Amino acid sequence: MPPAKKRPRAYDHDRTRAAVLAQFGHVREAVEGMTPDQLALPTRLGDWTVRELAAHIAMVTGLVAGYLEQPEPAKADLTLLDWPFATVTAADRVDGDTRAFAAGGTLPELYARTAERVGALLPGAPAERLVPMRFGGMRLGDFLVTRTVELIVHTDDLNDATGLEIPYDRQALAACTRLLADALAVKAPGASTEVRVPPFAVVQCVEGPRHTRGTPPNVVETDPLTWTRLATGRRSWADAREKAQVSASGERADLGALLPILG
Fold this sequence. Notes:
Blueprint: H1 13-32, H2 36-39, H3 50-68, H4 83-86, H5 91-102, H6 107-121, E1 130-133, E2 136-139, H7 140-162, H8 170-187, E3 193-197, E4 201-205, E5 219-222, H9 224-231, H10 237-242, E6 246-249
Parallel strand pairs: 3-5
Antiparallel strand pairs: 1-2, 3-4, 5-6
């Protein structure tokens, strides 16, 4: 796991909490209106159908309540910028956990239980409260930022599979974009390349001559959803360049070897 040398940016706890609840609400409304044929559609996530994907979204959101129900850890083992690199170690367990969770009821039942538990426990929980997440103790405020990544990425997966237009909460999309951009700066430390994801994030990364003033010699720019897809392997660098979904100028502006960040 790369060391998180970059200082994590601050996130407003109340706004992040509201964003998580809002995005989960958008997904819940869409899922509860899906037909059996829609739920049986394939997704871009291996052999998961929309049904498994929808169950996974409820499961990862419900972890907020599950962790708050457990005793508080003695210390924080993970910072926010550790999380993107820790997730790859749990990939093999995700499928089994999701299928076990999905067996616990119908999707409306799973979403209703998740909403009730999270709604009961989250509003009064402070950002500094530690939660015993899978990889160690972590601040609740930081864990909620990771939930915006899960929710935005998988909302996009649902939209891709179904052709629906489930909305993206602006604050959730902003937090997701910023965390994934900051993770790139951790993975490729340096200041020779500026990565811009307007209107939410600008980071400098990649070893090389440091830029100090004027227009940077190496610039990458894209939109938040394309950046999310690049950072999570939903879109390849070559494909995004070919479709003009990302612009890159300068000899150190090719990020292909650094992506994805989340496996």
